[in-house]
Amino acid sequence: MKPNQNRLLAIAALFTWLLATTTMFAQEPPHGPHPTPEQRARHITEKMVKGLELNEKQAQTVQEINLRYARKIDETRRDPNASRTQKFDLIEELFRQKDNELQGVLTKEQFSRFKVKQDEKLNHLRGKMKQRAQNAPPPEQRAHNQAEKMQQRLNLTPEQQQKAEQINLKYARQAEELRNRQNDEDRQRARKFAELRDQREQELKTLLTDEQKKKLDELKQQRLNQPRPRGGGGPGNKGQQCQPNGPGNSKPRNNAGPNRGKW
Known about the structure:
Elements lengths: L4 H17 L15 H16 L3 H22 L6 H22 L2 H28 L3 H16 L3 H22 L6 H20 L4 H16 L38
């Protein structure tokens, strides 16, 4: 296995979930605010301090790295001018850079343990994603639901709604076929999902008036700017959520010990 392949697989699983949460007219996400980049970085650092037994100097440097990249990733995710595939590539590169920086701070043994924890998280995430796919409605139902939501939010004409449902069905079937492929690696499959969503959005826009396109862009931007929801089978699942320990508690605790948590 190539040196960074495990990390790329984790990124792929992350983006399959991340990109799904920014898809317009999909199933409504669970309610509840997602932690800020600051809260997320602090939580990840605390898990790393405990799980990797970091010393005080390492903990401080790791906190700075986690915070810097949490902010960069959040900024990229909110970029209204970037497509999903562009965001996929940009954030994947940020993850790669972050891993390289962390490797320079951690000992060889600590970094090896860090990679093991990433693999555990990936396997858990794969299970969640598989469960979601099994519980998802068939492509025909998804396409119909999406077209109805478009009609409600964009005031489509009956003809527009019918064509929108046909487009949605075409891409829902392609997504179903892609999801069932056995030979594609996780990263490759996730990037293709992003491409399909970009293509679907562009094709749907050909049906819309200028006023409807403007409304669609406004709805998309609102969704990008709102806090990401908890749950949904991705990194925000319970047990991996970034829970702050209290207001103003931004300094990572160096409570090294055998209790090694996930991050």
